[in-house]
Design a protein that fits this description.
The chain is of the alpha/beta class. It has one domain (about 5-380): 3-Layer(aba) Sandwich (Rossmann fold), CATH 3.40.50.1820. The protein has 15 helices and 9 strands. The chain has helices spanning about 15-25, 40-55, 60-70, 115, 155-165, 180-190, 215-230, 235-240, 245-250, 255-270, 280-290, 295-310, 340-345, 360-365, 365-375, and strands at about 5, 70-75, 80-85, 95-100, 130-135, 175, 195-200, 320-330, 345-350. A 9-stranded mixed β-sheet has the order 1-2-3-5-4-6-7-8-9, with helices on both faces. α6 (about 180-190) links the parallel β6 (about 175) and β7. α5 packs across α6, α9 runs antiparallel to α12 and α10 crosses α11. The chain is globular. The two termini are about 35 Å apart.
Amino acid sequence: MNASAPFPIRVPEEVLIDLHARLDRVRWPQAAPPGWEHGADLAFLRELVQHWRHAFDWRRQERFLDERLPSRRAHVRGLDVHYAHLRGSGPRPFPLLLLHGWPGSYFEFCKVAGPLADPARFGGDPADAFDLVIPSLPGHGFSEAPRDPLFGADDAADVLRDLAVDVLGYPRFGAQGGDRGAFVAAGLAQRHPEHVVAIHLNLATGIPAAPEQRSPEEQRWLESQARWQQEEGGYSALQSTRPWTLAFALADSPVGLAAWIVEKWRAWSDCEGDVLRCFTRDELLTNAMLYWATGCIGSSMHYYRAHRLRPPAAVRPGRIEVPTGIADFPREVVRPPRSAVLRKYAVVHWSEMPRGGHFAAMEQPDALVRDVRAFFRPFRAARGGRLP
């Protein structure tokens, strides 16, 4: 296993020149209906592409990423793994992995990283400081794509266990994540409980009761999930069956890639239909650029197929006994009732959040920071020994 090395973000200039050429000659679909009901809105995409081509400054975003989320890479289990590493400023920083989802990136944590690592600088208690490890999951961003066609969240958990313990020297740590990051956190807790003190999730899975014992609340949850899959789940069906057919198109068209990603950021956030209420154009494009510049869209979507063929711990019916905190955001796409979550996880903390959706760290950073700090306080003494 190679030692970690600094990894400043520098996309080759020829990649940017090629991007601009593709944006200049984009072919728009004919007769696209207005609005978002049928997919990405043509008028919004036209305006976003104009901003991308003429106002968006990727080199400025590189400097921002290097400052807010200083990067490194390490060779772990045969893969080059990219991650940001922020040392905490406090008397005893607690090691914490922050785990992104799809179609997100490590950039999702740019607003929470500073307050979590250096709370005193942001008006908090230095005793709440964290040592932050913010990886790009394998197959995402600047992390190498796995060659195993069944590589999924549990395999990513094994890679990140080795990164945290063997490369960075954190024998005991916590994990926080949403979406795919929550799946990886669950995999860490299930497969490596000797290292994982506790996990905090802003997307929970659950185990429903047997049909004859099912409460009306759980029945409504299952029915709502079935409706959601029917109305919104087409992307998942495609990515879990033939992801690479789509990957050829998205890897060749920056506008197609942006449409595929931004449509989800609008649909899954608490934006009331206006994605710019939650995110700036530069934020949307910075996230999209981490997929475009690295060509990772295919390997990121391939997790869906791997999970269908080999379900990870997060969706199998087995219980996870590591202490778990839940931040329940009202516009999250998956919201099992507490009764189902309690069957799945050893829940010791549950917060009903007043607003926010799927991209909690970007949408509601202050609320997420408060909840993460509160949840992990009782576990700080457990870093080197038994749980309190």
